[in-house]
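RECORD CONTENTS
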Amino acid sequence: MWRGGGWGVGGGRPPSHSALSDIDVVFRDFIGGSTAPLDRGATAHGTMMVGLMLADGHQKGAAPGVTLGVAAALSGDDEGENTGDDAVVAEAIDWCRTGFEADLISLSLGGEQVESQRDVVVSSVRRALDAGIFVVAAAGNDGGPDDDGRVASPAFLPRVISVAASNESGEIWTNSSSGSGLGEDPNMKPEVHAPGVNVISTGADDAWFSSSGTSVSTVLVTSALAMILEAHPDMRVGDDRCVTHVKEALRSSLGGVHDDRTGYGGLDAMAWFEAVDPTCSTAF
């Protein structure tokens, strides 16, 4: 079972918010087959995530002008949680790669780690990475006293950028999942933290909602990377060479020292941009 945002994997226009009225999005519904864009997530979760990237109102999105695809693969349940089936999520990720031809996939979702060879979602993410698609995923919201020391799946995959959540002072959110201390640079988990506590974005019925969680921080890191790719389109090379380089540049931009809670540090979009070599050849 997967948990996260109903618009988390990738294509469509949120149904009813004036700050999103002029955006152009490709939408695909993998749950009910709707041809009209709709938000299947609990508490307008998907509309909020899209607003963080593209809103044009009194709140501005972090990645204006990017082309967005949204794949509806999760939906709200009776308890107000966003959940989804493994096969549906995997199909949505594959569509981002082959149908939408994404350069970057943002996954505001996560599940428990299982044997990767049996995990269809992990397999779909690996196919995207092998094709040179950048993947940013939520570290998970199971932090605190009972934290198991593992970020969510598929954020645990080495080539994925795993994102923790922090407050406006840069302090890690209590429920942000920790890493295990295992792995090698630049792939230790999580890699980065970004604002994810009481963040305001577009909600239902033209309202503005507040949300906390690693779904939120994931979208902000995705937005920063989207702007890097807008500036350097040649980095979309069709293999995973630039995927690794971008992660090395991220680590370098944050100082290079890892912590299981904070990652390599708090997102500095400009420093990341300046650390990137558009040819993906600079060694760190």
Summary: Residues 1-13 have pLDDT under 50 and may be disordered. The two ends are 38 Å apart (CA to CA).
